[in-house]
Structures are given as structure tokens and as C-alpha cells.
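Priority: low. Protein: ADP-ribosylation factor-like protein 3. Input follows.
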Amino acid sequence: IYVIDSADKKRFPETSEQLLELLADEKLTNVPLLIFANKQDLLNAATSSEITDGLALYTIRDRAWQIQGCSAYTQEGVK
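Result:
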């Protein structure tokens, strides 16, 4: 499980780099990836498409991955 701030699009390149470094760990080979896109209650929150592009998720081909929108504030998507 990887949690991102979906309202902070300017940090997507840094977040993508950190995620790809994490996924390079051989202990995580073939482990599915669930990305919680937090702060979906905010008007400037990125969509799943924007997150896919911003984090270059289309380059991840060696495992299943999914984006789940959520809001820790409203608890939407986390119950």
C-alpha cells in the first residue's frame, strides 16, 4: 500500500521516483500495488488518470496495481 497526496501534483515526479525505487526491492517482486490517493475531498485533487500519468504508472508492467481514491478527512474510501 502506497499513500499519496493527490492534491499535491507538483510532487508527483518526486513521488514517482520514490515509488519506483521502492518497487525495485527484490523482496517486493510480484507484490501487487495499491495506491491510496488521499485528499480526494479537495477540489484540486488529481484524477486517477492524472495520477497514472504523473507517477508514470503505465511503466509498471511486472505487477498488478490499482488506484483507490480516498479522504482521510471525510473517511470516504477508507471504510
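The chain has a mean pLDDT of 95. Residues 2-69 form a domain with the Rossmann fold fold (CATH 3.40.50.300).
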